Design the sequence.
């Protein structure tokens, strides 16, 4: 018999002062699976996580954790009794506690003595390379250090499900990369499932087993990173996951979606270069073609100036309006 899902959400609805924030959302997360929630600000990502964690009471629908209903009907299990670890984008550290005591808190709640809890907490801080910060309070920590302490506290909880609410939103590029490497290494070690909310397409596609696209409180599409990128349900979904052009199909078959890497310069079709951007490892060209404007990405520095007449070839496309399979 297969294990129960780590998370099961059925027809979940949440409203703020009568304004819907979640509209009939249903999804499941398997044990050990990472699901990314990708959508713009206001799409319902944080609301969904807070409802799963128990910080918000839905107006309808149910939430199950490991097969146990924690929200549904008249049953509301409080947050502290839900088997989840939450990492917030605003850190949410207690200002009066040191990093060590913050990380020791989950063990104390499990009934561990102060010495044992602090020993476990120190070991986690050492794994995250922040043992030197053990005696500091939040006001004495940088944003990246506070975020690591928040992750350490979640790890100390030993949950079967992690909820990450845009945890890298306020981190600079270098700290963000280090934090993500640590986060996923520790999650893998624990075997826990995770739901990761982000508005960053690269994060969602690079980290998740599946991606759920949200807009205005509704699920647009759920699939593997490859599916939601290559086979979006519509243009809005396509642009959530990265740059996309819409042109007429060369065979006259109607409008098609083209990603920057799905066309290359050189070939039988004609175009004029309207703009060029050097991105470091690659260059982007905005090409004006008889079929419409097209963004083309090629490795290396620019080879053609603005105004150049070039040929191009369409390598791949996706018909707009088609459903993902």
Sequence:
């Amino acid at each position: 018999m297969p294990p129960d899902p780590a998370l099961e959400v059925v027809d979940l609805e949440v409203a703020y002062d009568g304004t819907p924030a979640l509209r009939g959302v249903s999804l499941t997360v398997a044990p050990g699976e990472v699901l990314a929630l990708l959508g713009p600000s206001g799409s319902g990502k944080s609301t969904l996580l807070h409802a799963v964690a128990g910080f918000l009471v839905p107006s309808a629908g149910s939430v199950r954790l490991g097969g146990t209903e924690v929200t549904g009907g008249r049953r509301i299990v409080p947050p502290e009794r839900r088997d989840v670890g939450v990492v917030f984008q605003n850190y949410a550290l207690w200002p009066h506690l040191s990093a060590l005591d913050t990380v020791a808190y989950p063990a104390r709640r499990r009934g561990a003595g102060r010495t044992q809890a602090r020993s476990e907490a120190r070991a986690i801080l050492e794994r995250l390379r922040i043992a030197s910060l053990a005696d500091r309070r939040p006001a004495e920590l940088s944003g990246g250090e506070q975020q690591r302490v928040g992750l350490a506290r979640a790890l100390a909880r030993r949950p079967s499900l992690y909820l990450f609410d845009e945890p890298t939103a306020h981190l600079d590029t270098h700290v963000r990369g280090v934090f993500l490497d640590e986060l996923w290494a520790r999650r893998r070690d624990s075997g826990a499932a995770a739901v990761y909310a982000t508005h960053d397409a690269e994060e969602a596609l690079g980290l998740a087993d599946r991606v759920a696209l949200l807009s205005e409180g509704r699920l647009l599409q759920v699939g593997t990173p490859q599916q939601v990128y290559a086979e979006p349900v519509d243009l809005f979904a396509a642009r959530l996951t990265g740059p996309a052009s819409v042109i007429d199909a060369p065979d006259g078959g109607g409008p098609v979606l083209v990603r920057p890497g799905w066309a290359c310069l050189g070939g039988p079709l004609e175009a004029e270069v309207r703009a060029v951007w050097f991105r470091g490892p690659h260059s982007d060209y905005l090409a004006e073609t008889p079929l419409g404007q097209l963004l083309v990405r090629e490795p290396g520095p620019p080879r053609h100036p603005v105004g150049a007449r070039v040929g191009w070839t369409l390598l791949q496309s996706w018909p707009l309006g088609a459903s993902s399979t």
